[in-house]
Amino acid sequence: MIRDTFSADPPGGDYILKPTGLTWGVDRTTGTGSVMRVVPGEQKKEDALATLLSLAKGDGTDAWESAGAVSYRLIKRFRPPA
């Protein structure tokens, strides 16, 4: 059985899919405990998810989704193994 991976603080450079009211946003972690908004206000979750995965794959980082106020679920790992 494969279990989901959760984190309260995804590594710096990773991308996060977050709901922003009626739309979806893509943020990028800065590594200092904050995030930078990369894609604001995408109306369709599928489009925001496609952008998230494309950005994470291109940068070789991981893609996360907000899973509550301070928790994130790993969607796809693109970061090479350490």
Please explain how this structure is put together.
- By secondary structure, the protein is of the alpha+beta class.
- The chain has one domain.
- Helices cover 18% and strands 41% of the residues.
- It has one helix at 45-59; strands at residues 6-7, 15-20, 23-29, 35-42, 62-66, 72-77.
- It is globular.
- The protein starts with 5 loop residues before the first strand and ends in a 5-residue tail after the last strand.
- The model has no long low-confidence stretch (mean pLDDT 92).
Tags for this model:
82 residues; alpha+beta
Q: What would a concise description of this structure say?
A:
The chain has one domain (6-77). It is 18% helix and 41% strand.
Per DSSP, the total helix count is: 1
Strand content: 35-45%
> Which residue ranges are poorly predicted, with pLDDT under 50 across at least 5 consecutive positions?
none
Mean pLDDT: 92
Name the helicity range: 10-25%
Strand segment tally:
6
List the helices and strands and how they pair.
Layout: E1 6-7, E2 15-20, E3 23-29, E4 35-42, H1 45-59, E5 62-66, E6 72-77
Parallel strand pairs: 2-5
Antiparallel strand pairs: 1-6, 2-3, 3-4, 5-6
